[in-house]
From TrEMBL:
Organism annotation: Pseudomonas kribbensis
Top-level taxon: Bacteria
Gene Ontology molecular function, alphabetical: FAD binding; oxidoreductase activity, acting on paired donors, with incorporation or reduction of molecular oxygen, NAD(P)H as one donor, and incorporation of one atom of oxygen
Protein name per UniProt: FAD-dependent oxidoreductase
Lineage of the organism: Bacteria, Pseudomonadati, Pseudomonadota, Gammaproteobacteria, Pseudomonadales
Flavoprotein recorded as keyword: yes
Domain FAD-binding, residue spans: 4-342
Cofactor(s) it depends on: FAD
A Pfam family: FAD_binding_3
Keyword Flavoprotein: yes
Keywords, comma-separated and alphabetical: FAD, Flavoprotein
TM region positions: none
InterPro entries: FAD-bd (IPR002938), FAD/NAD-bd_sf (IPR036188), RIFMO-like (IPR050641)
Length: 509
């Protein structure tokens, strides 16, 4: 019987990122997918700043930015004319190295991840399905159906269900998936077109209750149209063609269609699984949570799940942590998923609400409010922080302790950059590490050296104060760059006690 450390079901971005992180940390993985090849069409487009920050750990961020498309502005249309613009090019200035909206279609994204995974001699096993699995003492036994129709029995220490909204893993675990389904039918069209909405920026139509957006793609005249239909056309979703929906784009956004590369319709759910873990099996990505496409959060949230789980599995499998560390995966990620589903549901419901009052809010109030909001730095910053996922945090949870400056245990480490350097450079290495901004004690230096815990001491600079970092304290950072301890002292016993209480050793690469 074939044996792996982690068996990954599903080779979308979530499963591929999980396989990459685990492989980098020395974990043996198998990743399989029921499809015959990587997708050639996709719905997910946005790669958020927080994902790009984490992608630095695998030298992926530069490739995504180089091959993707940076969106300069979002334009809002009413009655066939642009009425408001929100600049996006440097909307997150000073908050992150990636202070912009990056468009990188999921099909291209997956190909990049697959290529990088092959550098670790890991290949996606195609046309292979999981039929069942059972847990036994020290692992799992899984029954697979191979491309030739034969069955294979394999063993793994852990199993990761990254197999989408209709997850076999979730159904096998018999975990509830409460929520609902939006009444609208969504459509996606990849087109070549011309017109004012094909200028490389994002365009959204505020008219009526059907949502319509034009997302720019790389290459002149290429765009992705994403919209909804809710009238009698929704009753025949399976037979809808582009001609049934194209008139709205043409009339409302002056989009002149030259060619349609592909067109698809689908329904969207808003659901969160009751549990993200049972025993040795985990749920990630759409298998654990699905929601509206508002804000471009779905794929990025699945990638966040993968990175959160990867270092914890690697630590446990490498003997550097006790299995109780894995309990924190569900606690941390399910709380975020529930908040996200609630938020995107409210946004989408507002955008697509019907009735005279809703139309007035969208067509009269929004064009007035958006430019006002765009003129205030605090408003732009709030919007960016929310959408970019840089405010995702694990405050008040088991692995998060203390406060230093304005930074709490569980926060993402704030980015601080000036002419003298970038405090994120050491984060390229996915390991436990300590950051000190200012001075520290000889005891801290000696303890970190003795325990092979990287210590980075930055001379105090105004940029650190601006970022909210505390002076002369320390920050213990997890391998996924979130703050485990924020403390105003220079006492290594605080770190020693933390590792002892959580059953973790700092070195496991």
């Amino acid at each position: 019987m074939n044996r792996s450390d982690v068996l990954i079901i599903g080779a979308g971005p979530t499963g591929l990122v999980l396989a990459l992180w685990l492989s980098k940390l020395g974990v043996r993985v198998r990743i399989l997918d029921k499809t015959s090849g990587p997708r050639t069409t996709s719905r997910a487009l946005a790669v958020q700043a927080r994902t790009l920050e984490l992608y630095r750990q695998l030298d992926l961020a530069e490739a995504v930015v180089r091959n993707g498309h940076r969106v300069a502005a979002a334009n809002f249309w009413v009655k066939g004319k642009p009425v408001a613009q929100l600049p996006l090019n440097r909307i997150g200035e000073g908050l992150t190295p990636y202070a912009f909206l990056e468009i990188y279609p999921q099909d291209e994204h997956e190909r990049l991840l697959i290529d990088r995974l092959e550098d670790y001699d890991v290949t996606v096993e195609r046309n292979t399905t999981l039929e069942s699995f059972t847990e036994n003492g020290d692992g799992l036994t899984a029954h697979l159906r191979l491309p030739d129709g034969e069955q294979e029995i394999c063993q793994a220490c852990y199993l990761a269900g990254c197999d989408g909204a209709r997850s076999v893993v979730r159904k096998t675990l018999d975990t509830g998936f409460p929520g609902g389904t939006y009444q609208q039918i969504f459509y996606v069209a990849d087109v070549k077109a011309s017109g004012p909405a094909l200028n490389g920026e994002l365009h959204l139509d505020l008219d009526e209750a059907d949502f319509l957006a034009v997302f720019p793609l790389g290459g002149e005249g290429r765009a992705r149209l994403i919209g909804t239909v809710r009238d009698e056309r929704a009753d025949r979703a399976e037979t809808l063609e582009f001609s049934d929906v194209s008139s709205r784009a043409i009339e409302h956004l002056n989009v002149h269609i030259e060619d349609v590369n592909w067109f698809s319709t689908y329904r969207v759910h808003h659901r969160v699984a009751d549990h993200f873990r049972k025993g040795r099996a985990f749920l990630l990505g759409d298998a654990a949570h699905v929601h509206s496409p508002a804000g471009g959060q779905g794929m990025n949230t699945g990638i966040g799940d993968a990175i959160n789980l990867a270092w914890k599995l690697a630590a446990v499998l490498g003997g550097a942590a006790t299995p109780k560390l894995l309990d924190s995966y569900e606690t941390e990620r399910i709380a975020f998923a529930r908040r996200l589903v609630s938020t995107t549901d409210k946004v989408f419901s507002f955008v697509t609400a019907e009735g005279r009052m809703a139309d007035l809010l969208r067509t009269r109030l929004a064009p007035f409010v958006i430019p006002k909001m765009a003129s205030f730095e605090t408003s732009r910053e709030f919007l960016f922080r929310t959408v970019s996922q840089i405010t995702v945090n694990y405050r008040g949870m088991a692995l998060s302790e203390g406060v230093a400056g304005h930074v709490h245990g569980g926060d993402r480490l704030p980015w601080a950059h000036d002419g003298e350097g970038d405090n994120y450079e050491p984060l390229r290495n996915p390991c436990w590490q300590v950051h000190v901004y200012g001075d520290t004690s000889d005891e801290m230096i000696a303890w970190c050296n003795e325990h092979h815990l990287p210590l980075h001491v930055f001379d105090w600079r105004p940029a650190f104060e601006t970022a909210g970092l505390g002076r002369n304290g320390f920050y213990l950072l997890r391998p996924d760059t979130y703050v485990a301890i924020a403390d105003n002292s220079a006492d290594p016993k605080v770190i020693e006690r933390y590792f002892r209480d959580h059953g973790v050793r700092p070195f496991f690469a």
